[in-house]
Automatic annotation (TrEMBL):
UniProt-recorded name of the protein: Lipin/Ned1/Smp2 (LNS2) domain-containing protein
Lipin/Ned1/Smp2 (LNS2) domain mapped to chain residues: 2-49
GO MF term (any one): phosphatidate phosphatase activity
InterPro entries xref list: LIPIN, LNS2
Species for this entry: Gossypium gossypioides
Lineage top rank: taxon: Eukaryota
Record-linked PANTHER family: LIPIN, PHOSPHATIDATE PHOSPHATASE
Amino acid sequence: DTDEISYVKVGIPKGKIFIINPKGEVAVNRRVDTKSYTSLHALVHGMFPPTTCSEQEDFNSWNFWKLPPPVFDI
């Protein structure tokens, strides 16, 4: 219970909180559902898509926020 409360407090949606009890049962949204690691692996990829994504180089955060080089008078 305290784990779920903590995760909700920091903004994690209840449907994405997986609690594994000492018996190895997985509870999502307080519903206990025993799954194999293979099915959990597939579920995780569906709920948490990969963070790597392609972005245009002209508009990525580095190019948008980087500071221009300083100008020196010589």
